[in-house]
Amino acid sequence: TVQHSSNVKTLPERFTSSGFILAAIGSAVGLGNMWKFPYITGKYGGAAFFLLFIGCLLFVGLPILLAEMAIGRGGRGNAVTSFQSLSKSKYWGAFGFLSVVGAFAILSFYAVVAGWTIHYAIESLTGGLYASSDFKSTFLTFAGGYLPVLWQAVTMVITGWVVAKGISGGIEKFNKVLIPGLAIILIILMVRALTLDNAAAGVEFFLKPDFSKLTAESALIALGHAFFSLSLGMGTMLTYGAYVERQQSLGKASLAIGGGDLLYALVAGLIIFPTAFSFGIEPSQGAGLVFMALPAAFAAMPLGQFFGFLFFILLAIAALTSAVSLLEVPVAYAMTKWNWNRKKAAFYTSVICFLIGVPSALSMGPLADFAPGGKTYFDWFDFVASNILLPIGGLLVTLFTGYAWKRAGEEAGLSGFWYNAWMFLLRYVAPLLVIAIFFYTVGIIKF
Ligand code: PFF
Predict the structure, then answer these.
(1) Nearest protein CA to atom 10 of ligand 1, as residue
(2) ipTM over 0.95
(3) What does the domain layout of the chain look like in residue ranges?
(4) Does ligand 1 lie within 6 Å of residue 233's CB atom?
(5) Where do transmembrane segments lie in this chain (predicted)?
(6) Which of 25, 27, 57, 324 to mutate to test the pocket of ligand 1 (most atoms within 8 A of CB)?
(7) Is the minimum distance from the CB of 85 to ligand 1 under 6 angstroms?
(8) Residue 132 C-alpha to ligand 1 middle, in angstroms?
């Protein structure tokens, strides 16, 4: 062990308690909720999968979420120094550095997709999106050109600007307006979707329980998604945790964040499937669903330009509030490591993240042929960050809290039965499951 140097810089800013919950929900609710969750639920067993997902949240997601926030608040530092000051050893921090890299990597391509959604929101409002009814080629022409770089830059400017304004003046304010705004937009779109002809068929596809589809594979998919959806393993919840007041209950916060994440995902499904089924669209996931398939539905419905605008703004907001949490990870790192002020840190990290992401923005066009191992630059960043760095980050948090940090229970506010249950999950259940997800996503386990 190395002596803990008392000159480690801590992070002095603080969230209000509701501000923290909203910011953390803002991080959790993102593109994952909107375009991945509904699809995997429909595909892997509907309500049965939904129950499985709730189980994954409760038994693996929330314990790790609680641990991450506790590490941040206990250490009051970044994703590296918090581990160091709590364990008085520098080795844990070295792994924490992978989370900083991971957050950077995710943000670099996440901002590209966020940029697409802003472009689509504007195009829907002006009607330009509906000029042709071949939405697939509309998207491929747009994403295959240079314009995505501009929208990626816009995203990074907004993200950097919010983070530069600080915890209470930037991140908290941003989420306090946008997360309730997101709820209103979701409700409007849900009412619209559920009143379309044939909406019931969509709801049925989404939620009809099919327990025969619950396999080991669907379990791993549910687990992996619970992880990504709660923004775990990338140091985001840890870094936000560093700004939480001592008296706030982290246990209650975990429940609120998990519940919020679940609710937004559920409503997203109640928008996407009724809309798709009503217009005879084959449900899929990801970019194909939202940029190529759903515009056909907006084109066909009354006031579709407006509803399309709301839908893409919804995606943009969900993505931006997640992007802000990702940028805060390297910003907190730079502020503590090099003593930079927040503005300087936000400026340089945004610029670097933008530059790293430019090839991702061009991956569907000018750089499409640069694809070593069959993956484009964009795909590689996604693959390495989501499937390798994220599980390593999650494993680090569980092992650190389960085995190395003796006072974790105190910081998390748990004792007796709840502490023992938490420790059992962190020591034995979560690490094994995280390793299993890892083996599955990198292809070592196959079904
Ligand atoms: N939770 C976000 C989503 O569901 O889209 C994505 C994300 C944000 C993952 C922040 C990881 C992270 F650190």
Answers:
(1) 231
(2) yes
(3) 17-441
(4) no
(5) 16-35, 47-71, 91-118, 139-163, 183-207, 219-242, 262-279, 309-333, 345-364, 384-405, 417-445
(6) 27
(7) no
(8) 33
Q: What is the CA(320)–ligand 1 centre distance, in A?
A: 10
State in Å: Cα 196 to ligand 1 middle: 31
The Å distance, Cα 34 to ligand 1 centre, comes to 12
Tell me the pLDDT tens digit for each residue of 214-269. Answer: 998 899 899 989 999 999 999 999 999 999 999 999 999 999 999 999 999 999 99
Report how far apart, in Å, the C-alpha atoms of 277 and of each of 201, 269, 293, 357 are: 6, 12, 11, 35
CA distances from 23 to 20, 27, 144, 261, 284 (A): 5, 6, 33, 12, 29
Residues 314 and 31: their CA atoms lie apart, in Å, by 10
Contact (Cβ atoms closer than 8 angstroms) between residue 103 and residue 234:
yes
Q: What is the dihedral of CA 411, 415, 417, 419, to 10 degrees?
A: 20
- Architecture of the domain made up of 17-441: Orthogonal Bundle (1.10)
What's at 352, amino acid-wise? I
The pTM of the full predicted model, rounded to 2 decimals, is: 0.95
Assign 39 a pLDDT band (cuts: 50, 70, 90): confident
